[in-house]
Amino acid sequence: MNIQKLIEAARKPEIYAKGTANMWVDAHIAQQLLETHLSQDTDLASRKESTISSTVQWILNQVHGDSLTILDLGCGPGLYTERLAEKGHDVTGMDFSSNSIRYARESAQQKQLNIAYIQQDYLELDEENRYDLILMIFLDVCVLSPNDRAKLLKRIYRALKPGGTVLFDVLNVHHTLGGSESKDWQIAEQGFWRNRPYLALSETFYYEEQNVLLNQHVVMDEDESIDVYRFWRHTFSPAGIKQVLAEQGFRFVSCHEGILPDCDLYRSEDVTFCMALK
């Protein structure tokens, strides 16, 4: 085993340095993620069905309309899009994972729901004046670098109709990132990261000046090839969200806490739902 190569891969990187691998395009990991999305035993990839149903109802209570044109960014296997379509809305889902999109299309067909699905990186969203409502649910805004976040919000603004609404959730300042540094390792015949023997070194790094947390996973195969997966995490204050949205031309509307139940990942008070108008 090339220990030095492993040590180099596992070092704390410069902030926002990209990993060497993308878990969404790995067929094995994508299947593990889909199963996690659909599981009712965890909130790791998607929230539980009861929470999704209550969230969809809350969203529609905020954004009124009998037949809204809605885009769900990072739609996964279609857990929100199906509920929105069942309520009579014109719904499109976009996700980078071909595995999730395939499942979502098959599920919609079985349920005879007319939902359009697009397999695409939402950072490449390229539409204009089309949607009444654009959603990003399950803290996606929190994992984007500042540059990617600005790029996406600019594209969302362009894709919304005049007066359209963007609605997303974020971890807020009640959720503490500092002091969360940790290390863990796993060696297995097969598991989440591979369907063959592997070693995984997982570590969290805190960037105090920027108040940013990195979850890094270094995975080595038997042939000593190494993949590095990196997931950044930010928190936002209401003032910070207002500034982020205003920089892209949005009119700030409101922030809402206490929408979700507590779970293993966060408390209800840790999550803020944000709405803004074009």
TrEMBL record:
InterPro entries: Methyltransf_25, SAM-dependent_MTases_sf. Residues 70-164 form the Methyltransferase domain. Keywords: Transferase. The keyword Iron does not apply. The keyword Cytoplasm does not apply. This is Methyltransferase domain-containing protein. It comes from Desulfoluna limicola.
